[in-house]
Amino acid sequence: MTSNKKVISIMIFGALSLIAIGILNLLAEASTQIKDFLTLNKGIGPYSGKVLLGLIIGLIAWSISYLVLKEKKYTTRLPISFFDLTERQKEIVRLSAHPEATLTNASLQKRFSVSQITASRDLARLTGLGLLFAHGRGRSIYYTKV
Length: 146
Description:
By secondary structure, the chain is mainly α. It is built from six helices and two strands; from the N terminus they run ααααααββ. The chain has two domains: 3-71; 81-145, Winged helix-like DNA-binding domain superfamily/Winged helix DNA-binding domain (Arc Repressor Mutant, subunit A). A two-stranded antiparallel ribbon has the order 1-2. Helix 1 crosses helix 2.
């Protein structure tokens, strides 16, 4: 099992344990019978049963998620072709490398003699790959290097 799967299992354990403790807390406040039942040791305090049950629920969830993720086959690697950039896109990345550079759809249309949709696709691809960062919305949007 990869470390990512182990981390996910641990996160599920922690989240479900806290959710269970919160729900048990609400139930204890709603009913004195439940409150008395969940107080396992009066010397420890009213949280003794809530925390114990919350941890048991979390451990059950962790073991189930661990077993499910252990058998799951998936990859987070992208094919190298995903990162193949066109020459124009490489030039856009080079242009964005200047500290004061701000790119707009209109400036790319003029510089490369391309249509609005082509410039938009290039900017969307480079933004999706994390190479550019979009600032603003609509007509005032501009892009900078990440």
